[in-house]
């Protein structure tokens, strides 16, 4: 997995879109908000993007707070936390232990014997795999404080219903954008990345087993199979040490599109509040480095939101078809809860909503954090027709001029229908009798 940086010569003028405020077209509003977020948070046209725990990410949070205030949302909070600055530095750190394991087995074996060399190498592999497992199941991990962290923040807004609160829905969209690295530069390379990621991660667990078996009579060839895994581990390590040399993606589709969608939904909710559903808006920081913002959000508010429905928006500004994640997980596959999928399928049928699977493909979203904690939620995305690749994912070309107004209209309509259905369900007499 070679994470060399893709060069970007992106520059674009600042635009302000005209809007019809009397009868707003909320998809167009979402597009406007997403576009303004990209421009206003960038350090300059030549330095776009909103890196995790950077000043640009903080400017994005400030823009969101200002827009929410302008919409009349009164309950807006800023939640500060310390977030990881670079997922790539972590990968170099973890896979470095794997490379140490490979080197230890081959260099120590002549002097110390096969068993001792295997034992030392297994320590390196085991610790590296443990780091990866803990990180990608969204838990604390050893030596976390030794990695570069910085101040980040979540922007949280709460929109109350007209009557008593019977249900809560949390709408999620992250503020930060990713590095533009070579693995995301072309669909072929993205496919290669999806193939190589599980081999690299689970190869950390398989390598010591293969090396151990190679010490048995007649199984020496397994040692060379394990050594072949070193190639994947080297590329993963080298990707980690080189990726931060490159620029950030402008992050228009990933994930200013989600931020714009949430702001447009907030605007509509101010005009058309729900009856019994309290809406939480979570604009999170440091998603791209392992969902530190979502973890911080749930650590503080998870108990209160234990029965909430979480709806995560990811890359919803480009594409002809709407999809939802049926599964995801870098280290451990997690699936959408059955009850949530039933609701989403029913509401999504008129929108031609389709399921996709991302488990074991090196992809994570904040829904992974929700599912790991056994909470109820769904992640919504948009894809191009006849393509399974995420549009403009982590690319230097992920600029506002690629966003599509029609896609924003579609995702807004789906999101609004989900909120309406939840509100109808909890407002019904059956719901009241069931609670009684």
Q: How would the blueprint of this fold be written?
A:
Elements: H1 26-41, H2 55-71, E1 75-84, H3 87-112, H4 114-136, E2 149-159, E3 167-174, H5 187-214, H6 221-242, H7 252-271, E4 277-284, H8 292-301, E5 309-313, E6 321-328, E7 334-335, H9 338-348, E8 354-357, H10 366-372, E9 376-383, H11 405-427, H12 429-435
Parallel strand pairs: 3-4, 3-5, 5-9, 6-8
Antiparallel strand pairs: 1-2, 2-4, 6-7, 6-9
Helix pairs in contact: 1-2, 1-7, 1-11, 2-7, 3-4, 3-5, 3-6, 4-5, 5-6, 7-11, 9-11
Can I get a quick summary?
This protein is an alpha/beta fold. It is built from 12 helices and 9 strands.
Q: Overview of this structure, please?
A:
The chain is of the alpha/beta class and about 425 residues long. It has 2 domains: about 25-85 and about 150-180 and about 250-430, 3-Layer(aba) Sandwich (Aminopeptidase), CATH 3.40.630.10; about 90-140 and about 185-245. The protein is about 50% helix and about 15% strand. The protein has helices at about 25-40, 55-70, 85-110, 115-135, 185-215, 220-240, 250-270, 290-300, 340-350, 365-370, 405-425, 430-435; strands at about 75-85, 150-160, 165-175, 275-285, 310-315, 320-330, 335, 355, 375-385. Strands 1, 2, 3, 4, 5, 6, 7, 8 and 9 form a 9-stranded mixed beta sheet that branches. Mean pLDDT is about 90; it is low at about 1-25.
Q: What keyword list fits this structure?
A:
436 residues; disordered N terminus; elongated; Aminopeptidase; alpha/beta; 9-stranded mixed sheet
């Amino acid at each position: 997995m070679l994470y060399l940086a893709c060069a970007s010569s992106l520059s674009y003028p600042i635009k302000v879109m005209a809007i019809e405020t009397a009868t707003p077209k909320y998809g167009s509003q979402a597009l406007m908000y997403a576009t303004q977020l990209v421009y206003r948070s960038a350090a300059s046209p030549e330095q776009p993007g909103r890196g995790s725990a950077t000043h640009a990410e903080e400017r994005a949070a400030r823009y969101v707070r200002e827009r929410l205030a302008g919409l009349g949302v009164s309950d807006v909070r800023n939640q500060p936390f310390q977030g990881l600055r670079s997922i790539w530095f972590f990968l170099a750190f973890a896979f470095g232990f794997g490379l140490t394991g490979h080197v230890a087995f081959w260099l120590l074996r002549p002097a110390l014997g096969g068993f001792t060399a295997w034992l030392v190498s297994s320590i390196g592999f085991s610790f590296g795999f443990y780091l990866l497992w803990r990180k990608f199941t969204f838990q604390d991990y050893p030596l976390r404080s030794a990695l570069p962290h910085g101040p980040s923040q979540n922007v949280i807004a709460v929109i109350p219903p007209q009557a008593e609160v019977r249900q809560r829905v949390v709408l999620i969209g992250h503020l930060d954008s990713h590095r533009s690295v070579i693995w995301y530069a072309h669909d072929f390379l993205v496919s290669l990345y999806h193939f190589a990621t599980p081999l690299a991660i689970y190869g950390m667990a398989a390598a010591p087993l293969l090396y151990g078996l190679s010490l048995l009579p007649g199984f020496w060839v397994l040692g060379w199979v394990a050594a072949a895994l070193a190639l994947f581990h080297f590329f993963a390590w080298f990707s980690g040490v080189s990726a931060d040399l490159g620029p950030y993606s402008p992050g228009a589709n990933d994930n200013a599109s989600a931020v714009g969608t949430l702001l447009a939904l907030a605007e509509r909710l101010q005009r058309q509040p729900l009856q019994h559903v309290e809406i939480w808006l979570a604009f999170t920081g440091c998603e791209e480095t392992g969902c530190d913002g979502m973890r911080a959000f749930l650590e503080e508010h998870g108990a209160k939101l234990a029965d909430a429905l979480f709806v995560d928006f990811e890359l919803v500004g480009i594409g002809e078809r709407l999809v939802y994640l049926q599964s995801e997980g870098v280290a451990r596959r997690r699936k959408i809860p059955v009850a949530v999928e039933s609701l989403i399928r029913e509401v999504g049928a008129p929108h031609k909503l389709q399921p996709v699977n991302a488990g074991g493909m090196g992809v994570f979203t904040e829904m992974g954090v929700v599912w790991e904690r056994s909470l109820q939620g769904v992640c919504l995305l948009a894809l191009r027709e006849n393509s399974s690749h995420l549009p403009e994912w982590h690319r230097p070309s992920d600029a506002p001029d690629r966003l599509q107004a029609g896609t924003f209209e579609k995702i807004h309509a789906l999101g609004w229908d989900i909120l309406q259905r939840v509100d109808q369900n909890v407002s019904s007499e059956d719901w009241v009798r069931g609670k009684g």
